[in-house]
Amino acid sequence: MRPTVRLALPVSLLALALSACAPAPIYKPTPNNVTVPPSQVAREPERYGSADVIWGGRIVNVRNFADHSEIEVLAYPLDGSQRPQANDTGNGRFIAAMPGYVESLDYPSGGLVTISGRLNGTRTGNVGQAQYTFPLVSVNQSHVWTAKEMSGGHPNVSFGVGVGVIR
What we know:
single chain; 167 residues; 5 strands; 37% strand
């Protein structure tokens, strides 16, 4: 076997294995999509109008009203599979508005969510005692991530030095 063929095969197999590690994104961006964090939209809402967004983060709470529900989310950057990266710093907060009733057990406080939707202005509210401007998103699609989905696509390989005791 020629040297280039012998080298190409392992490199190809490695590339295939690495590409299989990360699941595909769950939502396809629209031509109207913007890729800015909620904190930037809160500062300049007029600049983004009714653009489409794909945002995610940690669910803070769910509020149900007569004809719709609102989910307050602490935003985090998304990885290539659109999973919120909760180990990163927050990117502001936003309110995801959904038609009808949303069961809070399906959107648990502390859970991770990714939404696809359209910006629909801002609203002033409070975070604790501080006044805050929340971008509003009319949700088209949403996905609450399970622990298995969050760990999926990450190789179970870790390196470290230490002493452990197995009981």
